């Protein structure tokens, strides 16, 4: 909601962080992309486990990360398509702020978020599923 209010490139908290670390761009949007991987990771994990989609659990983390990266890629494609349609508002919508690797770093952070979710919540999630 905050990013939607200000546009991600203009969120004051991102400006404060940029000024504090001496960066060149407002990186507030990166927090959202990290969450874009973190949040759906446990949902994907639960769906895969409850529906017994895989036979061996060794594939579970890989498939969860793949699902989260797929969601991130679809989001980046939607951003691109909306930017193409809106033409004049493309730069403010995309929020790349001149950073040529913005799309790739967004998807990378979604992958990092997914891995963090699995590492920090995986065992807790297993215990929760045992109680069901």
Question: What report would you give on this structure?
Answer:
Helices cover 75% and strands 0% of the residues. The chain has one domain (29-130). α3 crosses α4 and α4 packs across α6 (102-130). With 132 residues, it is an all-alpha fold. The protein is built from six helices and no strands.
Q: What is the multimeric organization of the chains shown? A: single chain
Question: Number of helical runs?
Answer: 6
Q: Could you give the distance between the termini?
A: 34 Å
Largest sheet data: none
Derived from helix and strand composition plus strand pairing, the structural class reads mainly alpha
Strand and helix order:
HHHHHH
Which regions have little confidence, pLDDT < 50, spanning 5+ residues?
none
Mean of residue pLDDT?
A: 84
* Amount of helix: over 70%
Number of spatially distinct domains: 1
Beta strand count: 0
Large-scale geometry = elongated
Rg over C-alpha atoms, rounded to the nearest angstrom: 17 Å
Strand content: under 5%
């Amino acid at each position: 909601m905050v990013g939607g209010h200000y546009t991600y490139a203009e969120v004051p908290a991102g400006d404060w962080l940029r000024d504090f670390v001496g960066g060149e761009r407002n990186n507030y949007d990166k927090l959202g992309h990290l969450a874009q991987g973190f949040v759906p990771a446990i949902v994907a994990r639960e769906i895969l486990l409850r529906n017994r989609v895989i036979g061996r659990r060794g594939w579970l983390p890989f498939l969860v990360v793949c699902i989260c990266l797929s969601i991130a890629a679809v989001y980046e494609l939607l951003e691109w398509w909306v930017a193409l349609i809106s033409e004049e508002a493309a730069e403010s919508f995309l929020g790349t702020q001149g950073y040529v690797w913005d799309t790739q770093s967004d998807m990378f952070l979604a992958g990092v978020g997914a891995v963090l979710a699995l590492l920090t919540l995986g065992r807790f999630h297993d215990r929760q599923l045992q109680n069901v």
